[in-house]
Amino acid sequence: MGVVIKNGRTRLRVAGGELLQERGRTTTAVPGAQIRSVEAGDGDLTVLLFDPGEPPMTIRHRNPQVLAAFAGEIRAIRPVHPYEGTRPPVRRETAGLWPGGAARVRDFVASAHPLLKAAAAYVVVGVPVVALIPVEPRGEAVSAWLAGGAGFALFALWAKLVGLRTRWIVRFRGVTVQVAPPDRVGGTADREADYRYRFRALDGRLYEHTSLWASHNGEIRYDPQDPSRVVVPTRILWLFADVAVLVGCGAPGSGLIGIWLDWAARVPDALL
Question: What is the percent of the chain where pLDDT is above 90?
């Protein structure tokens, strides 16, 4: 990792044996073999090139220590021994206006959390619907859309906290196994230790699962297609944690979603 010089929209850095100057969508790459010398001035550096058709590059920065470090990086990419053969030319590459942005959007969509994708879709689809569908009063449409967004967020939070997806998957295709008494791990003076379970799956491999809860019957249930999905049956989890999360997130979320559904039910009448 090296020094990066920033001057407005221009960025200069050394990477891959080249001096790179990025200005907007255009990148100028100067190979180390093309650099004749680096001359330090008063608050600037001048990079002279072997190619007579290429003008000198002037690099400015208010901090002389930064300039000195950057000059050292530039000198380090020059060949140690006299260069033989044709020197690689200076390259200039201009990125397309949209492909770079489209690639970033594609990478974001591929890597974003499913809840973030759902929130983005709710905004992109919901705003035009609220603005264009003539359900009166119009202010009620905005309120319903906002309530629906908050409701879906609370409901998703509730589902995440209680591991709803894992529970449903394990409930329908899970395998129940008996386990030895778990080890207590990770305890501190301010926090109780967790429970670490070891079990052998149908494929014969040994797996581990760490839970906040102790199994009340010496059994756990796991998904044979993905043994990392484990449910530990415990009365405490159901009686206390699940109920508390339901009251705090699940029930309010369902109520707010109901407001949105009431508005959505009147949309067909407004379109007829």
Answer: 16
